[in-house]
Amino acid sequence: MRSEGRWGIDLTMPQSLLLALHLRDAAGLRPPTSPLLPDLPPLDPVSIPLHTAGADVAGLETAGRQWATWWARSFPGGADALTSILPPRYPGLNGMPELRGLAELGMDDAVTWCARAREVEKRIITRTATALFETNLLTDVEHELGRRIRPFFLQVIVLPVAGSHHWDVVGQPVISLGLRADRDAYLVWLREQLIGIGHARFGVTDRTERP
């Protein structure tokens, strides 16, 4: 998180969403999209395949719908979302036997994969530091607007999916780790966010809520 007193930007990869996305890819689920669930690309790094030999297509389709339900309840992540998907009780998967069965098979692999994804994130943050660029960009945007932007906090969800992408998920900014890794592309995207904040009526104190 970067905070300069009157503004802050927090880029975060919620563990709960990472575990869920690994389960999606590892089991080959195809959850239906919705305003809360865009068509997210496959993970990068790729998932560890889950051996689902004998699983019927109908069961996987049901699990996919259950996965979408869990996501809609849990997005944008946070402590409660993480607790809901963790063993041994998997409380967020109550009434979802197909999805819970897959979670029981694949959670260890998902945790292992998450550690790999965070190592990739750490290397990207080290290689493409953005704090000074963000500060300079805000100054440039304020100069363009002809006024200071009122205090704000911008929370950005980062997902390690393939490619350079961004989404607006019911007002919550979401970007791919690939976009975060491309400093120029990230700053182009961030500029649009800052302009939107600057144009907001009466200014903005909290652009998004913390998870």
Report the radius of gyration as a whole number of Å: 19 Å
Structural class by helix and strand composition: alpha/beta
For the largest beta-sheet, the strand count, sense and barrel status come to: 5 strands, mixed
* Strand arrangement, major sheet: 1-2-3-5-4
Order of helices and strands: EEHHHHHEEEHH
Number of helices: 7
Model description:
The structure is a single chain. By secondary structure, the chain is of the alpha/beta class. It is built from 7 helices and 5 strands. Strands 1-2-3-5-4 form a 5-stranded mixed beta sheet. β1 and β2 form a beta hairpin. It is elongated and about 60 Å long.
Summarize the structure.
This protein is α/β, with parallel strands linked by helices and 211 residues long. It contains seven helices and five strands, in the order ββαααααβββαα. The chain has helices spanning 15-27, 57-74, 79-85, 97-127, 131-145, 177-181, 183-199, and strands at residues 2-3, 7-12, 152-159, 166-169, 172-176.
Give the helix/strand layout:
Blueprint: E1 2-3, E2 7-12, H1 15-27, H2 57-74, H3 79-85, H4 97-127, H5 131-145, E3 152-159, E4 166-169, E5 172-176, H6 177-181, H7 183-199
Parallel strand pairs: 2-3, 3-5
Antiparallel strand pairs: 1-2, 4-5
Helix pairs in contact: 1-2, 1-3, 1-4, 2-4, 5-7
What brief labels describe this structure?
5 strands, 211 residues, single chain, 7 helices
